[in-house]
Here is the input.
Amino acid sequence: MKPTNSVIPVAFLYLSFNMISCEPAETLPDELIPIETVNSDVLFKTLTFASDPTVVTEDEKKDLYFMREEEKLARDVYVFFYTKFNVRTFGNITKSENQHSAAVLKLINYFGLTDPAVEAAGAFTNLELQKLYDKFTTEAVNVVDALKTGALIE
Here is the structure.
């Protein structure tokens, strides 16, 4: 039986997050909410739609609402971890999650839908995502747990 060494996977996770993170940041970015994104007219002129791009089905609405809050979940968890553990990686990746969330919001706005995201950090209209946020933020009691949670989220 081979001995297992948990230091190697944790180090790999840490290095991976550092390598994929955005620019270095010593403090949590001020630009978390809101963020400027590309002009939706430019974005949608460059996309090819399989169906009418002005109509969204009920399933697509549900998917957009879920994606918006899922991106917010990732961002809120990383903000929580950054605040709790002061690991630059979490501050950096927060920027990416914010951009993802803003991109989905552009789609929601384009289709004239109501944004489901609650502005308050750690609050969600989707009960399953609320449970995940609560679980992720209470079970990660150290940096290693937080990095593992980040890997799960990604």
